[in-house]
Amino acid sequence: MKQLLFLLLFTCLCNAQQEFKNYTKVTVCRLVNTDEGSPCSIEYYAKKLKRTGHYIQAMESFNDTLAYSLLRLKTEAKNWNKEVCNCGEESVGKALVPNMFIIEVNNHKDTVFTTIGNRAVFFPNEQQQYTAPQNNITSIFPKDVTDFFLRDFTSEISAWKMDSIPAKSVLLRKKPIYDLTRKEFEKDITYFNFSRTDSVYIATGKLHRTVNSYYLGETKFSFDAVQDRISEVIINKTQDLSDFYTIEIDGVKIGDSEEVLCNKYDNSTLLKNWDAPLSAINNYYTYEVYLDNLEGLIRYTIRNKIIYSIYIEFKYPNGMRKKKKK
User: Fold this and answer.
1) Which end is more exposed in the chain, N or C (fewer Cβ atoms within 10 Å of the end residue's Cβ)?
2) What is the distance between the alpha carbons of residues 326 and 228, in angstroms, rounded to a whole number?
3) Helices 64-76 and 2-19: crossing angle, nearest 10°?
4) Distances from the Cα of 9 to the Cαs of 14, 68, 73, 102, 130, in angstroms?
5) Which residue segment(s) compose the domain that 61 sits in?
6) Has this prediction a pTM greater than 0.70?
7) CA 167, CA 294: separation in Å to the nearest integer?
8) Domain CATH code at residue 175
9) Could you give the dihedral angle defined by the CA atoms of residues 160, 147, 279 and 102, in that order, rounded to the nearest 10 degrees?
């Protein structure tokens, strides 16, 4: 009965594809890293993290044939040889179900899970895997999906090294802001519009530190309360302020195209769609560039191929700054 209902749905979707403008998307996900003693299914990681990164890598395909073929295979799989596969969300052990296909056809959404090597379709509710005859699953993959499964993301992530730039390359009004105190900032660069004080607590409820935050428009500058040195800068969107107050980092600024980063930093932009939500991996992701000598990092968030926000973290590995002689 379930198969009959699905066939009716599949027929309706095909008819809709012919009569109306069709929206089809398949998000192909792979579990490329796991923790020791962690669950054996990508389903657990997808529900917990909901993002790409160290554990999950993903790609999008708008191939209609792939989408409909996956839906068809999910139905046909019930006729294949089956065996028990104890791999629920909480089942611990080797990754047995590392692949997930999120299929969207107009208003219809479905998910297909497959085992190692895409040899079988796995049904989580049944804890059963249905083995495909004659590589039926991989035979429907277009070249880009095949290449995606051939890529060794585990090794790439393990060997990944970020690009690094000097902390002094973070400029406002063409002046470095690293290591400035709030008073030095206002003396050498500009006065802030307004300020506030935030208390940061750890999980136990104990006060961790106090941070003093100051603003230029919507750009937030945080200063450590101990030495009052600049610790964070958050630029959320293109400023209404004049270019006079635009922060440049190694020549890069908010509102620049993603291509600017890709042309500058081969290593940092090696892995695309990092830290992206699985629902929109090509429209919201990040790149990181480190600061030399462990002095911090820059995180660029990309939306619609444009640098949408920038997070700057400054660190001071040499500890407390020596007091200047009067």
Assistant:
1) C
2) 19
3) 170
4) 9, 11, 14, 17, 22
5) 2-151
6) yes
7) 9
8) 2.60.460
9) -140
